[in-house]
Amino acid sequence: MAAMAAEAAGGEVRRRGCCGGGGGGLFPEESFASWGAYGRALMETGPRLVERATARSAAAVEVNEVRGRSGAEMKRNLTWWDLAWFGVGAVIGAGIFVLTGQEARDAAGPAVVLSYAVSGVSAMLSVLCYTEFAIEIPVAGGSFAYVRVELGDFVAFIAAGNILLEYSIGGAAVARAWTSYFATLLNHRPNDLRIHAASLAADYSRLDPIAVAVIAVVCALSVLSTKASSRFNYALSIAHLAVLAFIVAAGLSRARLSNLTADFAPFGARGVFAASAVLFFAYVGFDAVSTMAEETRDPARDIPAGLVGAMSVTTAAYCALAATLCLMQPYREIDPDAPFSVAFSAAGMGWARYVVAFGALKGMTTVLLVSAVGQARYLTHIARTHMAPPCLARVHPRLGTPVNATVAMLAATAAIALFTDLGVLSNLLSISTLFIFMLVAVALLVRRYYATGETARGDRNRLVGCLAVIVASSIATAAYWGLGGEGGWAAYVVAVPAWLAATLFLQLRVPMARTPEKWGVPLVPWLPSASIFINIFLLGSIDGRSFMRFGVWTAALLAYYFFFGLHASYDTAKALAAEVAAGKVEEGGSKPAVAGAGN
């Protein structure tokens, strides 16, 4: 019993009251009961931080106890077909239609095709890691829950903040791109439908009320029914793929091979990887599918087919579309705002730009819809742990959807979309996403090679050493590349072999603590280690100003954690430990939430 109390110190307790909280208001925990209690809590910040920094949740607790705090249960009515189309709908949107032109003209040239391939490989490695976790821990929390179980409470909170940033920024970027293509459909320039506020900074002065309206409509649809959202999504996605096939076929009829081969990589390898880092934005969204594991009928069967299938289709489609664009026009003439529409007009097929704009609008609508579904489920699970106000964890008893979390996230997304330029959003989004994907790959290695109470101390220390070398060598390679050291090989000769040696040592000298029961990532530790390396390397290709913005966001996250999230999760952990000690919570917690299969 005492061992279970210690293992459960990750903050798990099923509390009643305000949407899973213990009382009323945003923070119903004991530390916020009065100003005096809050003052005493702040005085204990140091000891509480030490305890929570190393606290790890348990998979069974995430699936049972934490999930039970939403009151009602989500409906388990999704199949692999739903997940595959959610994956396609989540990913193919603004990235291919907007960023392709920008990166082809200014960063990579026709080699943007390689940039999409590099980003696709990185995304596929992350897909494999997410798939194993989603089957083993089928909850709405996605990567937040995975990191919380394996890397602990504090790292999970940092991941949680970046997950929410990723989805808010991603949704805002797509909504603004929606306005741009809608303007094209009406024969207007993108900014014609925006309001210019001259008193604001240039990157924030084009107000976009249409983007806000689109987000509001998507919000209403996503709270009504997940299954209905799925049907709407795959109807639009099928039509969208038909438009993409038309773009490739019609574009190739106007292709000139010389446009692609005359100057294939004018900006060199640096341009290819710099574009890859930005174009990773185009692959963002597939992780939203992992948050639907809680609503999937058979996660072990449906999630691998849905996620891997969707990413394979998406990568092939992106490379084909990028190649088509670069065959139609010399890269210097590609329009950065509406590249496909302008390319068809230049090729004498002006009518085709309306088909392109219509297809882009449909694609971006599905991205917004799946993003709305995914981000709400992330916030729901974060609120279940009391790192966010627990009233956001509420699942509507009749609709079976997280209404409060959906409205809160889309309100934040709409506020960002109203003001912020796409260029600012895409780079910051890529940093946040690559960081999270790197953490998930680290968490997977920890899950495979470490089990509390079973792994010997020597094996644990060897695991920590290997992970430290893998991460450090990846950072060294990325930093040397990012600082302009591509002309010399000294750092690479040291860092890359160090990464190889650490991964090989992990494979040969550290025994696995567990193997997945149903489906697992192949070639462990090599594929997760490669995911860590590639994600960190792509981070080294992002501009410094974006890292400054990322630093400001991280500082704001830490301030919230030290003043609120730390104390709320500490109180929740104490309450669970007390219930365990009193015998009120049996091992495994409450019964698994199994919802009906209806719509």
TrEMBL record:
The cross-references to Pfam families, in alphabetical order and at most eight, read: AA_permease_2, AA_permease_C
A GO cellular component annotation in the UniProt record = plasma membrane
**How does it sit in the bilayer?**
Multi-pass membrane protein
* Statement: the UniProt record of this protein carries the keyword Phosphoprotein: no
**Gene3D superfamilies this protein is in?**
Amino acid/polyamine transporter I
Where does the Cationic amino acid transporter C-terminal domain start and stop, copy by copy? 519-569
Tree of life domain:
Eukaryota
- What is this protein called in UniProt? Cationic amino acid transporter C-terminal domain-containing protein
Q: Which organism is it from?
A: Oryza meridionalis
